[in-house]
Amino acid sequence: MSYSDRYKKNTNKFKSANPVFEEWLSEIKEDAIAKDLQSKHTYSKVCLNSLRKYPLPLKSGKECIILEGFGDKICKLIDEKLEAFLREGEYMPEFRSGAYAILITLLKNEEENKDEENNYMLKAKLIRDAQKHSDAQFTSHDPKNHYTAWNSMSNLIKKSYVDKENKLPARYRLTESGRVLARKLLYDYLSFFYLRKKQDLLIDEIKKANIKHEFGKLHVGDFAWIARARSGSHPDIVLNYIVERKRMDDLCSSIIDGRYKEQKFRLKKSGITYAVYLIEDYGSMKHMSLPEKSLVQADVNTQIIDKLIVHHTTDPKDSAYYLIHMSNFLIRRFKDKRLNACAKTELEDFRKKFSDEDLSQNEISNYLMTFKEFNEFSNKNKPLSVKEMFAKCLMKIQGLSQEKVLSIVDLYPSPSHLIKEYSKCSDENSRIKLLANIKYGSAQRNVGPAIGKLVAQLFFTSAPLP
Question: Does residue 92 lie in a domain region?
């Protein structure tokens, strides 16, 4: 049975949390049956059943090890397919771009219209249905600007992802390669769709509580609170609180692939003082892709070393209650206050002059960033300065927390600055002390000789590292 035949026969497959992995496991099973391998029974009776029952998205074969029937060999086979899958072609439309919206819309149309002869779409309906999947507009009301999200259609046709039948009116449908790409897109953004479905439960509770809310793109965090002027003539101001929401399984994945450390760094650099990790436990930690001890340690480190707030909830509904209470708290705190917008650099200068106790009592707490500046500064895709790039480099070194890194780059904003100071030192001991005696964090502790020695060896030695 061909790939496309299986796809047409199983259009309800996308209800699964891991449809692509399920597809690959079916292929592995069929191969085992063809070769009459003993493992064919394991694939069909145990692995597929446990995969279909698992309610959360998995991001690698390695993560499947927590499921019944999955051993190192099966996990490796899935990872090999995943690697080949992601290598297929370099073209990958951006999330919620015009091309993305067109492909997803045509794919959904195929799911709903099982008749091959009639699973095409006309331009008007395609534009209307695709708009909800795109941040770019498919129609333009500006006579000087003729570009719209529909322009991406010509590129999709050129690359043979969409077939255009030159009838009147023109008909559009996916090619086989376009279908594969659309499924690949759906795989890559499966976590988003799953979260959105679950998040509907969260939003329902927020609506019931009559909390005003809007949907928008945040470059850091998942929830933020803004103050809006009554007159509408002033910019929105972001309050000093932000929430990053994580499912426990996603937390495991982000720790494994390094995203967790990078996300914490970006939260610390966002200019928001009170950053909260909202972790949805979904039951026991014992069946995750990391040992329970590792997860507990990560939790403690986030609170004690990184000085971020961690709050655990049981599910989306419980998370909604937390957000509702936070919203009501912030409304009570700020509703009668005069808030002043200022630049992020000014805000950082103000905060350096006052202690945390002063911030809660002093008028400085009423000076906040505009939402626009906060969101633009937090964009991880913006070009990095040398200082930011150096900080990201230092973050890869074991034992260097965000606070230690920030203290180092404040004094030495580039490798050249650091190397220049090392060259002035008379011996190894003085080079170690260069960073070892730097103060970091609210407790003003020393970075320490271990880090001082390691960084000096990395940046100022020509001999092999020990």
Answer: no
